[in-house]
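Researcher: First entry.
Model:
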Amino acid sequence: MSTTTPGSGGAPPPRPPSHGPRARRPAPTEQPNERPTGQLEVLDELLDDGRQDDFVGGRDLTHWPTAAGRALHAAAVRARRWLAPREVWALTLVVGLVVTAAFTAAAAGVYDAVVEGDGVTGLDQPALQLALQHRSPGLDTAVTFYTDIGGPVGMPLLAAATAAALAIAWRRWTPVTLLVTTMLGSLALTMAGKASVGRARPPLADAVPPYEHSFSFPSGHTLNATAFAGIVAYLLLRRLRAAWARRLVVVVAVLFAVTIGLSRIFLGHHWFTDVLVAWVLGLAWLGVVITGHRLYLTLRRGQHSAGGGSGGGPRDR
């Protein structure tokens, strides 16, 4: 039976045939771990500087040429089914921190073993005696001033100033995110190591004041300096196009980490093995942070082919 619309004076246009109950519009496909676009852009600005910074020289950081790298990449791709790239990054940091902390506990066991056998610790006393032979009032003062750069006051100030300077110069948040993450993890590893080992420092009679009374193993100054220098070098290497500039950055970073460690031995504030393990822990944690960031960038770019080419990135000059 047809009806007319009042005032229309004619029949309405025919309706499409209906089969059964009125069909609902299909719901939009729900994407897991998706958030509003604006929020995503803000979050990704904390870690992503753009495709142009995915390279160190001619090497594409989103390519994984080694077998271990391809395995990590494959695991990250599988995790991407349930997690957003930034969540994969966070998970990588958590797992890496736990593994590195476990290494710290293992190092404590190795330390106990070598103490009895006078193995690596046989270097501790000779290193301290060598430092004692080369001390002088002027040198002691200079080294104390330098070592304070890596201390509980100097290092946070240096890290904050560096993060702010790079963020302002580049107009990016990545330096802040990576520096804060790296330094917090370094601090956590230092605290975990000191609590798990509880090793006494060298005798105060052999140390240069001001004296320190916390546990000795590992050296927090050295661990923090290694992590700081490494992550700053990573940030700069992604920006620098000239090969000589990248080499200079690496040399300066290595010198800073090494000399801060040696200053701790020279002043009698740490044993040689405290510093040695701190270097290893710092490099291990640095590797976790950089690997996590590279995985994040790889997932963001959608590069599911883990080839080993240079990717056509910026070339050395």
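Researcher: Second entry.
Model:
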Amino acid sequence: MEKVYGAGQGGGARGRRKAAEGSARREPAARTIRVLVVDDDRVDRLALRRALAEAAGVHEFREADAVLAAIDLLTAERFDCVFLDYNLPDGDGLTFLRGVRAAGISVPVVMLTGQQDDQIAAQLAESGAADYIDKSDLTPARLLQALRRAIPAGEGGPDAAPRPNP
């Protein structure tokens, strides 16, 4: 790797030019969005990961296939958003959401379900769900919309400006 000198570090005008060229070529680092995908169906988890990567450039995922596994991950790691299937083998999404909120975990949760139920949707909103998506409406565009609602640009969401390099 070629050493690049900046002004005052030696190398004269040539060094300053190389330093300027080097900094101009660097792309600002975009914030990495960390997503937890909770679904008992492996195929659904994979489809969700692919759609999120395509729509929002999300590339850092963790997965859980049940409520207890998700709670373990949420207490051990920081996530920017959780995409949660409503029906899981060891509990339902509403109970999970209420428990997470009661434990003081404030991560945005986007609920996914295969059944459309306006009463459940209302209860989820009252309990603090960031969004509710019927699995039949699961498209990259709809996932991006949900991610934008869950993590606004001012909080480092998918529309946030890239951070400049220090």
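Model: Note on the second entry: The beta strands are 34-38, 60-64, 81-85, 87-88, 91-92, 109-113, 131-134.
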